[in-house]
Amino acid sequence: MTATIPPQLPDAIRHWIGGENTDSAHGRTFEVSDPVSNTPYARAAAGGPRDIDRAVAAARAAFPTWSALGSRERATVLNRVADAIERREEQLAAFESYDTGLPITQARGQARRAAENFRYFADVIVALGEEAYRAGRSQLSYVVRTPVGVAGLITPWNTPFMLESWKLAPALAAGCTLVLKPAEWTPLSASLWPEIFDEAGVTPGAVNIVHGIGEEAGQALVDHPDVSLLSFTGSTDTGRHIVRSSAAHLKTVSMELGGKSPVVVFADADLEAALDSVVFGVFSLNGERCTAGSRVLVERPLYEEFTRRLAERAERVRVGPPSEPATEVGALVHPEHYARVLNYVDIGRKEARLVAGGARPDHLPEGNYLQPAVFADVSRDARIFQEEIFGPVAAVAPFDDESEAVGLANATQFGLAAYIWTNDLRRAHRVAHAVESGMVWVNSHNVRDLRTPFGGVKASGLGREGGAHSIDFYTESKIVHIALSEVHTPRFGGGPA
Ligand code: NAD
User: Domain 12-257+460-480 falls in which CATH fold?
Assistant: First the structure.
């Protein structure tokens, strides 16, 4: 099957260093394929330590200029970046959908979110004050924030452009310059950043993009002594490895890692709303979503009906070419990932009861397509209950009371998001507080408020991004203490000789 080729598709994707498009120092490239035909459509520059060296040097050179801009000036540039993204919404969505396999309608939403991230952080930086503390008439202390320096940003292949914007915008807003290493499976949309930043008037060298394989380009960025902080979004295993590597230079790290988020549906919940939310929460974005509600815990009286209706809906989810507006689930990003997800479906067949999907739809003989799968009666020690599948696969299990629900919700190494469905106000709060996760939504799917902290606990990450938390991460705060009156100092050495 051939994919719908977006207009202006490049056949070469290059680094962007110091404001120039450039090849790798050693000239190496790697192939990039689309997930519908699984055939290469472009070659991307494969960065290594020398390219990272050049990019970090360019970021260091741009730092004095970019960091010296006033917050209003930086905000103006960020708003122009948002304008430039919006002008390219169609092209961005087409690139993203073609490269990642995301349905085109959902890719459009991601382009809009990327623009919103820039507008939002433009607002944050002009509105942000610095704290001051007064101790009566004796001392005044105030905080001075300064950008940390050169930031290293490493991003995954799911919703790549939006996730890149989620790091680029606060880093630039805070006054840092940076090197971005996009995911190697999906470098296409990142190839639009250079013209976007040029058009917006970002200082050349403030943003540098080095493509390449994680273990080469990514590792070189992690190891570079002049990169002061690392913002990483990706899998828990890679995150652990990066934290270990970054210890050599004691870098500041932010880790947004994997998830296996529970949806807890109590019998008093609004069944229709909960069902819509569960189906959307686990199957949208092809199920390749860190905050997917992939463990569905349902109170016993509702369990049979809920599971049956969830299975019916999963069977009816429209799987199809990413470029078609009617498609709800597109093609999984890469044959390796597709094989990994199919392997989990095989494991699930042995561990639980498959009640929907789990196979390639008949009308799609090629490409990385999977009819969304629902497994029922999944036990807490099952691998499909414990491990992040990162595809359109839901694991459903019953519970008998609130304490069992909380126990099941917390029974994995992850703790990113949780979703609770109940009409009992007190229980909603109780369970929200008891669930081990960085984020909880009550009677809702994942609706973001960009001001709020985003991140996970346990194996889902370290630190929080979002709003002032992001600015905290990309800046050092220094406290200045001023004595306002005489200070009594114990007198050492003032005694007789
Ligand atoms: P991954 O860890 O394989 O790769 C992520 C990035 O790290 C890529 O750019 C890769 O090239 C790079 N990388 C790999 N090895 C590296 C190394 N040794 N040094 C430096 N960089 C290296 O993850 P993925 O498969 O691309 O993404 C899927 C994962 O991301 C899932 O686990 C998902 O839950 C997670 N994720 C988390 C969030 C969140 O906000 N918590 C958001 C999206 C995705």
Answer: Aldehyde Dehydrogenase; Chain A, domain 1 (3.40.605)
The answer to whether the beta carbons of residues 65 and 203 sit under 8 Å apart is yes
- By the 10 Å C-beta count (0-12 exposed, 13-18 middle, 19+ buried), 270 is classed as middle
The active-site residue out of 96, 288, 290, 388 is 290
Q: Where are the domains of the chain?
A: 12-257+460-480, 262-442
Taking the CA of residue 181 as reference, the ligand 1 atom at the shortest distance is: 9
C-alpha–C-alpha distance, residues 378 and 410, integer Å: 15
418 ligand 1 Cβ < 6 A: no
User: Is 90 tagged catalytic?
Assistant: no
Q: At the fourth CATH level, which superfamily is domain 262-442? A: Aldehyde Dehydrogenase; Chain A, domain 2 (3.40.309.10)
- Contact by Cβ (8 Å): 196, 226: no
Q: Tell me the mean pLDDT per 10 residues along the chain, length 497.
A: 89 97 98 98 98 98 98 98 97 98 95 96 95 96 97 98 98 98 98 98 98 98 98 98 96 98 98 98 98 98 98 98 98 98 98 98 97 98 98 98 98 98 98 98 95 97 95 97 95 91
The CB of 19 under 6 Å from ligand 1? The reply is: no
The string of DSSP codes covering 421-444 is E-S-HHHHHHHHHHS-SSEEEESS
Look up 256 and say whether it is catalytic: yes
Atom of ligand 1 nearest to the CA of 156: 26
**Gap between the Cα atoms of 32 and 55, Å rounded:** 22
Q: Is the CB of 254 under 6 A from ligand 1?
A: no
Closest CA to 205 of 233, 176, 225: 176
Nearest CA owner, ligand 1 atom 13: 214
